[in-house]
Automatic annotation (TrEMBL):
GO terms, molecular function: DNA binding
Residues of the signal peptide: none
Biased composition (Low complexity): 20-45
Protein name per the record: Winged helix-turn-helix DNA-binding
Membrane-crossing residue ranges in chain numbering: none
Pfam families: MarR_2 (PF12802)
Organism in which the protein naturally occurs: Neorhodopirellula lusitana
InterPro entries given in the database record: HTH_MarR-typ (IPR000835), WH-like_DNA-bd_sf (IPR036388), WH_DNA-bd_sf (IPR036390)
Domain HTH marR-type positions: 59-106
């Protein structure tokens, strides 16, 4: 019976220590900003990284815009500029090539990308416009 009691006592002591530690850790945390301060922080991206909030254009559009501006850029750099992984950019470039939005030409060890600006947009709402219209709107 003594062994049973000491085990129960150890559990009670352990629980009290955990409760005390939790109380200390909650007191040490600063209050989260609210109102305008919270909105400003939420909309401010981390240093050198794009905002994690949603955007109107997809990553496919972002890759297309970057490659249109700099057709000889390596995909690693495209990934940095768009804020996604290099592997994601590779998949997107393959999608764009398969669907006829870009043409890839191998020049030595590098690729040159040509955006086919006369291709219509895919969704019925915007099908009356082409890729060139979007690029003009974004790049000016």
């Amino acid at each position: 019976m003594a062994a049973k009691k000491s085990t129960r006592d150890q559990r009670v002591k352990s629980t009290k220590k955990t409760d005390a530690a939790n109380a200390k850790s909650t007191k040490a945390k600063p209050a989260a900003p609210t109102g305008a301060a919270a909105t400003a922080l939420a909309s401010k991206p981390a240093e050198g990284r794009p905002s994690t909030r949603w955007t109107f254009l997809t990553n496919h559009a972002h890759v297309l815009i970057v490659l249109h501006a700099e057709p000889d850029l390596v995909l690693r750099e495209v990934a940095v500029r768009v804020g996604i992984t290099e592997r994601a950019v590779q998949r997107i470039v393959q999608d764009l090539e398969d669907e006829g939005f870009i043409r890839r030409e191998k020049i030595g060890r590098k690729n040159h990308y040509e955006v086919l600006t006369d291709q219509p947009l895919r969704h019925p709402i915007e099908a009356h416009r082409d890729i060139g219209d979007v690029l003009k709107l974004i790049t000016g």
